[in-house]
């Protein structure tokens, strides 16, 4: 007996006897452990929960044929994908099957199926073995084909049209474990009519009601996360990365979406009449700048971009596809309007909404839907709604659950909404369809087993629209036969950043085309819904307060950075001077900068706060570079001033393409006094020399700082340090020198007066001078000292016999000159004959 068969064939009588049941279970488990390994594959059994393994396998679906079952479809359905071992143990005895649940009948059934909570055991055909053992890190291709009709043990056994949840179920035996479900993937399969095949006869659905089909409106978003850094006219376009070039390529996401639109919704087709392109103004503006050449600023420096040709081709294709059809402009950079309102930044709502329409209309060369705004997620609170109303919006596209006072299960239509004294029209989108086009946040757990069920919409871009197509079929079948004049249209609104590719987008548009051709739906464009006004009777409603939207996903630090950048740009703009024919205009220079501060607040960063912070940091650094381009250039050498009132020549540079009127300030020091400097106008992308009157108050070398300010007094560029060398006497030096001269004159005059009066000098009053005699004769012998030692001296000169003449008085020495004391005179003895 095999392990799977032993667990599946437990005797029912054991359940009433606990001890006997325990022994029986132990016996059966031991028997399974010692059974032959090949027996389990010979008798596959149903899935049984098993102890948790270290890591399950992962099933990634890649294809489903057919996507919508009709009478013209093949009699079989085929799924393809890849099975990967993400655990740390090999898995043996792999097998796979496709099973389904009952037809979905209510909105609740569809929600449960989208969440992975529905039952999928209405038809459970036999497992199909997969060859080999799947080692850790390995992968295995999977392809499974089963009949659409027939017995439940052989295929899906479809008996009537409808929408069914199907499950791709993979069982296996992890090494040292028990057989269990090791991977699973779920999706919805729409069935409009049954193909030929064995099985019970086609059971028709409810008979159609009298009247025409329901209208359908499809919004087709073209949005990407921001990549561009702030710039001014004339500068080279700078991107943070080159990911946008890869997305715009024919095999990229945006390139695939545009290709699918061109193939499945050509001009003049019914699908084109039902579809409205929703375009991000920042995306088309960036593509238009890229085609002129751009550079990428990365961590290793700035390198040339590689997508100029791709961006130009994509933009030309979009312009051709938009011509003559419906186009609605999204907020610039898909800004989160709720987050801006909660951050007290509603003054940025105008540039985000109104300027966005002008950008799209100018670049694509086609009119856009006037005064219409589709916010991210279809959500606006009261403050955000007031902001878009102030920006001139008269129609907003909102999720049906984001408007209070409506009935459950609203699928579309237009209703009046009020905010204060202002009344607007809200076009409601189908909440169930929006949920079907969005990938689920987390996979659903399956019954305590080792595997989790993943959604094909979350793991496979080609199948990302399968649930949305099936849900649209569900709506069409439910609304079939409704009178044309009654009932609102079905509005399909995918997420702004739509995670699908060309294959997925074509499958959804093909489903819309199939429903239109079969008469189950009729095309109704968004412009028609807007112009018709409210379609649902009743009083005006109010926007619901979305507790989980807005500031939850935009970090407060990012909103604070947006606030500071806005203040920097507005301060810079206050210094701009409009001059006709000189440089760029003020609006052309600063409007893109105000739009650029919206990029960190883009709703595309929801769930990725680290990327939002990085975008805010990069944008703030770039705006600071633009402010610093207006500065005083430091001179190549120190200023040398030779006079006390010599002027300083300063050179002010302007790196912006518009004339700027700025103010200069020079820091005061103890060595320099500067006269007030009048405002200076600096030409676009030019320089101007400014002569500053200065007064030197001391000599020597010292430094001062020169700074450029906006009219509000905020510094623009960084301070420039100037070295000043003064060779002129300052006022303090001149005063000290003059005082010393006056003192010398006074002293000299005082001495002359004393001489005239005959007053003795201080030297005469204090005795003879003690300095040496100032004589020209021979030296006078020194007086004897008290020392008894004999001092040898030069022999005295010959002395005459005549009596000695009186010695004359030595001349007077200058005042203050010390003299040695005069030696006493001795009588000279007479020489004998």
Automatic annotation (TrEMBL):
Superkingdom to which the source organism belongs: Bacteria
Residue stretches spanning the membrane: 728-753
Ranges annotated as biased composition (Pro residues): 775-784, 796-813
Presence of the UniProt keyword Transmembrane in the record: yes
Keywords: Host-virus interaction, Membrane, Transmembrane, Transmembrane helix
Region of interest (Disordered), ranges: 532-554, 759-833
Protein name per its UniProtKB record: DUF6049 family protein
Protein's organism: Pseudonocardia charpentierae
């Amino acid at each position: 007996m095999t392990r799977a068969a032993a667990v599946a064939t437990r005797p029912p009588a054991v359940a009433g006897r606990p001890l006997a049941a325990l022994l029986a279970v132990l016996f059966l488990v031991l028997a399974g452990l010692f059974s032959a390994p090949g027996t389990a594959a010979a008798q596959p059994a149903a899935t049984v929960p098993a102890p948790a393994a270290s890591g399950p396998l992962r099933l990634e679906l890649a294809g489903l044929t057919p996507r919508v079952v009709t009478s013209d479809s093949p009699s079989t359905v085929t799924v393809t994908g890849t099975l990967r071992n993400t655990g740390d143990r090999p898995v043996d005895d792999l097998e796979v099957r496709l099973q389904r649940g009952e037809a979905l009948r209510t909105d609740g059934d569809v929600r449960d199926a989208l969440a992975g909570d529905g039952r999928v055991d209405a038809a459970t055909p036999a497992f199909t073995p997969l060859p080999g053992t799947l080692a850790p890190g390995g992968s295995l291709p999977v392809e499974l084909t089963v009949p659409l009709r027939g017995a439940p043990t052989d295929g899906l056994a479809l008996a009537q049209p409808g929408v069914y949840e199907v499950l791709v179920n993979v069982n296996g035996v992890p090494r040292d474990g028990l057989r269990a479900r090791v991977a699973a993937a779920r999706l919805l399969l729409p069935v409009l009519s049954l193909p030929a095949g064995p099985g019970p006869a086609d059971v028709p659905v409810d008979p159609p009601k009298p009247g025409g089909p329901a209208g359908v409106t499809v919004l087709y978003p073209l949005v990407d996360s921001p990549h561009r850094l702030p710039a001014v006219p004339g500068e080279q376009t700078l991107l943070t990365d080159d990911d946008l070039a890869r997305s715009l390529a024919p095999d990229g996401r945006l390139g695939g979406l545009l290709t699918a639109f061109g193939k499945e919704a050509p001009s003049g087709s019914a699908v084109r009449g039902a579809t409205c392109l929703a375009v991000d103004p920042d995306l088309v503006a960036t593509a238009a700048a890229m085609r002129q050449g751009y550079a990428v600023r990365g961590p290793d420096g700035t390198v040339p971009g590689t997508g100029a040709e791709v961006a130009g081709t994509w933009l030309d294709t979009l312009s051709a596809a938009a011509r003559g059809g419906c186009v609605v402009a999204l907020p610039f950079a898909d800004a989160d309007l709720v987050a801006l309102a909660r951050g007290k930044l509603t003054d940025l709502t105008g540039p985000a909404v109104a300027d966005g329409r002008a950008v799209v209309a100018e670049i694509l060369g086609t009119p856009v839907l006037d005064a219409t705004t589709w916010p991210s997620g279809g959500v606006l609170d009261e403050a955000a709604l007031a902001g878009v109303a102030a920006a001139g919006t008269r129609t907003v596209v909102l999720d049906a659950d984001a408007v209070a006072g409506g009935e459950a299960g609203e699928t579309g239509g237009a209703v009046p909404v009020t905010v204060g004294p202002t009344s607007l029209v809200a076009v409601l989108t189908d909440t169930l369809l929006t949920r079907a086009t969005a990938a689920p946040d987390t996979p659903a757990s399956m019954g305590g087993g080792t595997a989790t069920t993943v959604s094909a919409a979350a793991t496979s871009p080609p199948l990302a629209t399968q649930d949305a197509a099936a849900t649209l079929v569900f709506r069409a079948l439910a609304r079939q036969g409704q009178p044309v004049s009654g009932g609102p249209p079905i509005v399909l609104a995918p997420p702004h950043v739509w995670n699908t590719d060309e294959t997925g987008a074509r499958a959804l548009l093909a489903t819309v085309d199939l429903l239109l051709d079969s008469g189950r739906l009729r095309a109704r464009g968004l412009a028609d819904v807007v112009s018709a006004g409210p379609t649902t009777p009743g009083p005006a409603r109010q926007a619901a307060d979305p507790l989980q939207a807005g500031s939850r996903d935009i970090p407060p630090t990012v909103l604070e950075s947006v606030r500071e950048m806005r203040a920097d740009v507005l301060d810079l703009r206050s210094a701009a001077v409009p001059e006709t024919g000189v440089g760029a205009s003020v609006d052309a220079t600063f409007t893109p900068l105000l739009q650029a501060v919206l990029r960190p607040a883009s709703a595309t960063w929801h769930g990725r706060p680290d990327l939002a912070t990085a975008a805010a940091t990069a944008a703030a650094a770039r705006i600071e570079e633009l402010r610093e381009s207006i500065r005083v250039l430091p001179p190549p050498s120190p200023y040398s001033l030779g006079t006390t009132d010599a002027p300083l020549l300063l050179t002010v540079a302007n790196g912006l393409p518009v004339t700027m009127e700025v103010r200069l300030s020079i820091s005061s020091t103890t060595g320099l006094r500067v006269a007030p400097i009048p405002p200076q106008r600096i030409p676009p992308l030019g320089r101007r020399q400014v002569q500053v009157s200065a007064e030197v108050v001391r000599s020597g070398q010292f430094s001062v700082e020169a700074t450029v300010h906006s009219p509000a007094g905020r510094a623009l560029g960084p301070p420039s340090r100037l070295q000043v060398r003064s060779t002129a006497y300052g006022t303090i030096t001149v005063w000290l020198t003059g005082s010393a001269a006056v003192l010398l004159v006074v002293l000299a005059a005082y001495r002359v007066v004393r001489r005239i009066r005959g007053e003795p000098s201080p030297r005469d009053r204090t005795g003879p001078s003690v300095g040496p005699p100032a004589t020209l004769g021979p030296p006078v012998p020194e007086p004897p000292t008290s020392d008894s030692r004999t001092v040898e001296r030069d022999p005295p000169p010959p002395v005459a016999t005549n009596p000695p003449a009186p010695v004359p008085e030595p001349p007077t020495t200058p005042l203050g000159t010390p003299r040695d004391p005069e030696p006493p005179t001795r009588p000279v003895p007479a020489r004998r004959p």
